[in-house]
Amino acid sequence: MELVDALRIIATNFSSTEGSVDSLSEEQWIETLDAVVDVIDQPDATTREMRKFLYYGCARFDRWFPPSPFAVKPEFTATFDRFFAALVRVDPFGVANTSVLHVHQIKNHVFTRFGKAYAQGDSFEVPGKQEIESYLDRLNRLPVPVVHGKRQEYEAAHTELSHILMGMIDGSISTTIRTSLPYALSIRPMTVKGTWRTILPFTMRIRPIFAEAVEGMSAVGNAIVQPVGSTRWQAGVTHVEIVFHCLLDGDAWTPELRALNRPEGSPTDGWPNSYTSCFGVIYDVFWRIRSESGVQDVWPPAPRDIGPIECSLSTASASNLCFRQRHMGRWMTIVNPDHSEIELELGAVEPPPHWKRCRETASSYLALGDTREALLFLNIGVESLLDERFKVLADANGDPSLLDMIYDKKSVWQEARDIVAKQAPAVADKIVWPEREVHQTRYSQLKLAHKHLSPASSLSQARKHYNVVCRNRNELVHGTREEPIPVSDALKAFRSFDWLVDNFVPSGPVS
User: Fold this and answer.
1) Which parts of 335-370 fold into alpha helices (H)?
2) Of 5, 280, 332, 380, which one has the greatest count of Cβ atoms within 10 A?
3) Which runs of consecutive H residues, i.e. helices, occur in 369-435?
4) Are 336 and 223 within 8 A, CB to CB?
5) C-beta of residue 472 within 8 angstroms of C-beta of residue 374
6) In sequence order, what are the residues at sequence separation of 6 or more whose Cβ sits closer than 8 angstroms to the Cβ of residue 148?
7) Cα(327)–Cα(347) distance, integer angstroms
8) Sheet of 309-314, strand order
9) What is the DSSP-derived secondary structure letter of residue 305?
10) What is the C-alpha to C-alpha distance for residues 356 and 339, in angstroms, rounded to an integer?
């Protein structure tokens, strides 16, 4: 963006008394700042509109001002720092407007330094008393605004951060996450203590609530109802409370754990750390307590099972600090029900092709957050798809016998004969070729199909997309990969699978 365009945007949007926090997209805020940041010290640039632009830019990228981001990426906080540094340059004595921003900047540094998200690969570091005291000293040296409303805003932010810092100094700081599961995780209340992934000490309280006996059953006394065998018909719910005995940044961005395999994609591109850490602890604890829980037939927890999450901080002197509530696991939408009856004449009812059923099953697992299962079913589906398409391609060429060439177990030796005959014809007839049969790899079959069956796709593209689908297959099947497949990798596999569906087809009309 050119400087003249940026100045015009600032003059247009920030000349009114209210400002225009919502008038610009995130990209426009950043591009406008990039264009003016080198000239804001010039007298003719330090206008009232410029100061408003910078102040509202701080507010736009201040995670502690509502509306707060769904999940805070590092670059979001970095953009706040840039706007705040520019504002201080333009208005160094604007105490009424900047003191609360100073508090929030210190708070950002504390959460970034010590509340890192495990899911991002960061290590948990026990804060040193001297370093925390330095943050507290910076906080206490900030000037207090004179304007009543600004002073109240500042004092509330200052008090909350003071409690957090004092809790870190005396060791009483804790992060509490509460949620629920749509099934009974245990047959009795349980309190579990441990250290998650060797770095985060926690206490987890499990409180099951059981369903009443259904029609045709009776429960005597305090007896409860439990399903026999794994089922999606559940017989209770579980309230879960996890207390991390440390500062955990519940809003920090982490990779999403589940996704919707739809053209419009998922509502977000990541999850807050409170959700990711909560599910991680529940999932890992589930396997450790299964024998003691009395509920052996429950499905292993999936990210889709996690209910609304409440996350807050507590210390010896205060509770319910930095309270946040998130609804991530149970995505819902509003529909208008249509009560008119539809009549369908289906004729002979047959299941869809096996590859299509596998793809839909994989899509369901992706929506649950079970990415390993999603990739396994997608790989089953791609093998079924290729077998079907080889036959379709042979039929399209008017010669079904061509299919035998794709599956010929001796064609590998024939290919070797052809190479030798071309490069060393004098010795080609003197070689005694093996008679044993060798199964073709899929890559060899794709090569033969493009040589003899003339599909619409190119060999390089077909191999490329097949390889994307199969990329994690060996690790999953051979048990060498325990961690879930990243959602981004799963979505790439779906896109490549769909490419093969659309492009590995006859190049012309079927004869």
Assistant:
1) 354-368
2) 280
3) 371-396, 402-407, 411-423, 425-428
4) no
5) no
6) none
7) 43
8) 190-196, 200-210, 236-244, 174-181, 309-314, 321-326
9) G
10) 30
Which two three-digit tokens encode residue 350? Answer: 């047959």
Say how far apart CA 80 and CA 109 lie, in whole Å. Answer: 12
Q: Is the peptide bond before 353 cis (omega within 30 degrees of 0)?
A: no
Residues near 289 by beta carbon (within 8 Å), at least 6 away in sequence: 186, 190, 192
Cα three-residue angle 163-62-331, rounded to 5 degrees: 95
Summarised one tens digit per residue, pLDDT across range 434-471 is 666 667 788 888 998 998 888 999 999 999 999 999 99
The amino acid that residue 450 corresponds to is H
Kindly state the helix (H) or strand (E) to which residue 210 belongs, with its residue range: strand 200-210
Are 225 and 217 contacting, i.e. CB atoms less than 8 angstroms apart? yes
Mean pLDDT for 155-168 is 94
- Name the helix (H) or strand (E) containing 181: strand 174-181
What b/e sequence results for 194-224 when a residue is b if at least 16 CB atoms lie within 10 Å of its CB, and e otherwise?
eebeeebebebebbbebbeeeeeeeeeeeeb
Question: CA torsion angle for 158, 164, 170, 174 (degrees, to 10)?
Answer: 160
Question: How far is the C-alpha of 284 from the C-alpha of 482, rounded, in Å?
Answer: 12
Strand partners, 200: 196
Q: How confident is the model over 195-224, as pLDDT tens digits?
A: 887 778 899 999 988 766 555 555 555 565
Q: Name the percent of the chain lying above pLDDT 90.
A: 40
Query: For residue 305, what are its two tokens?
Result: 């099972």
- For residue 190, the cross-strand partners are 206
* Most distant pair of Cα atoms in the chain: their distance: 100
What mean pLDDT is reported for the chain?
Answer: 83
371-396 vs 459-470: helix axis angle to the nearest 10? 150
CA pair distance 228, 65, nearest whole angstrom:
49
**Alpha-carbon span 150 to 309, nearest angstrom:** 31
Q: Phi, psi at residue 324, to the nearest 5°?
A: -140, 145
The H-or-E segment that residue 27 falls in is helix 26-36
**Is 431's pLDDT higher than 50?**
yes
- For the cut 80, the answer to whether the pLDDT of residue 97 exceeds it is no
User: Residue 241, Cα to own-chain centre: how many angstroms?
Assistant: 22
Query: What's this model's pTM, rounded to 2 decimal places?
Result: 0.79
What is the C-alpha separation between 329 and 22, in angstroms, rounded?
A: 28
